[in-house]
Amino acid sequence: MRRTTRGFSTRPAFLLAGLGAAQLLLAGCATPPPKTDPDALADYKANDDPFEPTNRVVYAVNDGLLTYVITPIARGYNAVLPQPVRSGIHNVLNNLGAPVQFANDVMETRPRRAGDTFVRFLVNSTVGVGGVFDVAKHVGYPDHSADGGLTLAIWGIPSGPYLYLPLFGPSGVRDGIGRGVDSAVSPYTWVTFNGVNHLNAISTGLSAVDGVAPHIDELKKLNEQALDPYATQRSLYRQVQQTRVEAVRDDRRATVPDWYPDAGATGAPAPALPGRTPLPLPVISPVVSRVATPAASQVAAQPSAP
After folding, report:
1. DSSP 236
2. b/e per residue, 230-265, with b = 16+ CB within 10 A?
3. Residue-number span of the structural domain to which 54 is assigned
4. pLDDT one-digit tens code per residue, 11-24
């Protein structure tokens, strides 16, 4: 199962616009190869990473924070808390992110997905004891991906150049803007009450640890086996993002439930959606688990940058 931690805190995404803008303004651009080297020029265009020099600096900083701060905390988290407790924390964080997921389902014009999200939130918040238990998936309402980046992709907005954002990790111009969309539509951004800042901080920290803790070994293998971990992550991130976009586009389920007697063709089962196995990338934010975890053989097989 893919572990996608949405979490309570969305306000930090407002920081994204400033970080992204500063990175673009200060970015050192990669120099395109000469036209006399068509193969290198083709690779440069395929990578679509004009800010690679700056991106690699940001990657190195994020990777250092992951290695020396987040991973040790995640190891202690795994050692102290049993698996059922960790699963409960993960479920609560996901349940708190359901309002943003529902808003994106609606904006993607996917009524069945929106209905699934609404039922999941209702069932898990009540029968699931505030989201601790994912009861909904056992009664026919599995989780799915939905965020601002996917919504913009469904609207036809291209991904844009690759960006490796401070704290947030792998992204693109479209996905970076999508994070801002998520913050704008989140009720937690606008609702204020005593202790909201503490809850935001706790959620952000737990989301970061929750995204890394199950995948410490995979992260280690990725860094050890890939000749160029930065290039490998860039390639994997784009592949999985494209898979997620295609999953939304292919989900054309009608709003009539499959079990309804007169559902007919409109109630046909949806195409199989991809699993929820994440690619935890070296970042220190809730988005650490937004893409799928490759098997060791996949990591080793990924081409590296020259």
Report:
1. H
2. bbbbbbbbbbbbeebbebbeebebbeeeeeeeeeee
3. 11-255+271-301
4. 554 455 455 544 54
